[in-house]
Amino acid sequence: MALNWTPQIGDPTLGGWITVFAYVVCALVCGIHAFKVRQEKSPGSDKREKWFWIYLTLLMCFLSANKQLDLQSLFTEIGKALAQQQGWYDNRRQVQLLFIAGVIIGSTGFIAIMTIVNWDLMNKLWLAVLGVALLLGFVFIRASSFHHFDDFIGWQVTGLRMNWIMEIGAITLITLSALLNLRNKSISR
Question: Is pLDDT above 70 for 61?
């Protein structure tokens, strides 16, 4: 299976580097929040909250590296090579639509599972859960290389590309959630 991919900077534009910076800031804020979660009052829910923020810290670190390593292009190349090798490349649009439907169902399922598992914490986590679902949905649909979606995210609104608005918007929701929770923790002390 021959791949047409080499490691390189995925988005060397100012917007790309601002997005990387947003991921790094989000990872730092999530990490600080995870460190500050206390385990004195109700150990079960605080432990789940702490791990929630640790996982988000790790996810944001991975996505910041992925933004410039362009691993989703490798994923796309592997999918293309498999489609050609297995003879279904001409039907790839149907597979891409199924993939996007799966991402939407998966993102909705993620929100549902996170809500059920962390029901007692959702007043603190709902904004972060929504941000993660939107961000992962964006990343996976972008990785599917569906050309209509590529056309949409290429649009510009007041000089800003839609993909920057969508990606940084979702990152901002997660960061804002962590900051609000940190502020509420310092007020309640």
Answer: yes
Residue 106 backbone dihedrals phi, psi, to 5 degrees: -65, -45
- Side-chain half-sphere exposure of 164, counting CA atoms within 13 A: 17
- List residues bridging with 26 in a β-sheet: none
C-alpha dist (Å) from residue 22 to 26, 99, 138, 144, 187: 6, 27, 16, 23, 26
CB atoms within 10 A of CB 9: 12
**Stronger pLDDT, 186 or 47, i.e. the higher one:** 47
113: left (phi over 0), alpha (psi -120 to 50) or beta: alpha
Task: Give the domain ranges of the chain.
Answer: 14-188
The answer to whether residues 10 and 16 touch, using CB atoms and an 8 Å cutoff, is: yes
- Whole-structure pTM value: 0.75
Exposure of 174 by Cβ count < 10 A (0-12 exposed, 13-18 middle, 19+ buried)? Answer: buried
CA dist 116 and 96 (Å) reads: 30
Predicted confidence band of residue 173 (pLDDT cuts 50, 70, 90)? very high
